[in-house]
Specification:
It is built from six helices and eleven strands. By secondary structure, it is an alpha/beta fold. It has three domains: 38-103, 2-Layer Sandwich (Histidine-containing Protein, Chain: A), CATH 3.30.1340.30; 109-178, Histidine-containing Protein, Chain: A, CATH 3.30.1340.30; 183-256, Histidine-containing Protein, Chain: A, CATH 3.30.1340.30. The model has no long low-confidence stretch (mean pLDDT 87). It comes from Acidipila rosea.
Length: 264
């Protein structure tokens, strides 16, 4: 082999060796891109399966870098909330951007609030805890905020579920405080209930399954909520609550029907 030929062979070998890393790097990027595509495809399939229920039929999804974006519409806020929770559980999804729309409906905030107050007032009838829930409702631009107190977590969650499944509600903020577990408070609740609803002039309120006089107890402190027919009824309820053994203090927040300071 001549000197010239040896030089050409060496140059060709060097060129081939120099190009090898680029070829390998290109293959690496191609493989990574394919893996990312496969992962997105699996997530999209998982999301489609998670949203297979008919209530999500108008919901669309897309995935980018592990972030799932939900669009479309549902009938009530609970469907929107449940869609997000289901997608979050899909393997590979790191976050959810929930842009699902809920119809606002024809009711204004005041009408929606009145509807919710009524629905939540009678929500737990028959379970024995109705008189011990004092849950407040406010609505602004379709966003419902729940406050006050509930006898137990089931009562609080049930009220939130009522709001979330009411057409027109755009979001639910659950600020309900659950009463602490206390045998002493339980005894006071029952005794106060009997003292108030068993009293002659107040017995008429016991007929209403919604129990309009609500009794909230925390650490021996009793607060009365609700609406009564007259100032005399309000005063009588307060006196009856004060007579219960073990009660430390009574706050009488009962409102008289027709008064200007009646709560919404």
């Amino acid at each position: 082999m001549t000197r010239l030929n040896r030089l050409l062979v060496s140059a060709l070998a060097g060129f081939m060796m120099a190009g090898t890393p680029s070829i390998l790097l290109g293959r690496h990027f191609t493989a990574s891109a394919q893996q990312a595509t496969d992962a997105s495809s699996k997530m999209e399939a998982g999301i489609k399966k998670a949203l297979g229920n008919s209530r999500f039929k108008n919901v669309q999804s897309s995935v980018s870098d592990g972030i799932a974006t939900l669009t479309g519409s549902v009938k009530v806020f609970d469907d929107k909330d449940q869609a997000e929770k289901k997608v979050k559980r899909v393997k590979g999804v790191v976050a959810v951007r929930n842009e699902i729309e809920v119809p606002r409906g024809e009711m204004n905030d005041q009408q929606l609030q009145q509807k919710l107050v009524r629905a939540i007032e009678y929500d737990r009838v028959g379970y024995g805890t109705t008189a011990f829930n004092a849950i407040s409702v406010s609505v602004q631009n379709g966003v419902v905020t729940l406050g006050g107190t509930a006898w137990g977590p089931v009562d609080a969650d049930s009220a939130a579920a009522v709001a979330a499944n009411t057409p027109g509600v755009q979001d639910v903020v659950n600020n309900i405080a659950v009463d602490p577990v206390s045998p002493m408070d339980d005894r006071i609740r029952i005794a106060t209930f009997r003292s108030i609803y068993g009293f002659g002039m107040l017995n008429k309120y016991a007929i209403d399954p919604g129990k309009p006089i609500r009794i909230s107890v925390q650490n021996g402190n009793v607060t009365l909520y609700g609406v009564v027919d007259s100032q005399a009824d309000k005063d009588a309820a307060g006196i009856r609550a004060n007579q219960v053994p073990g009660v430390f203090h009574v706050t009488n927040n009962l409102q008289v029907a027709g008064s200007s300071n009646k709560p919404k």
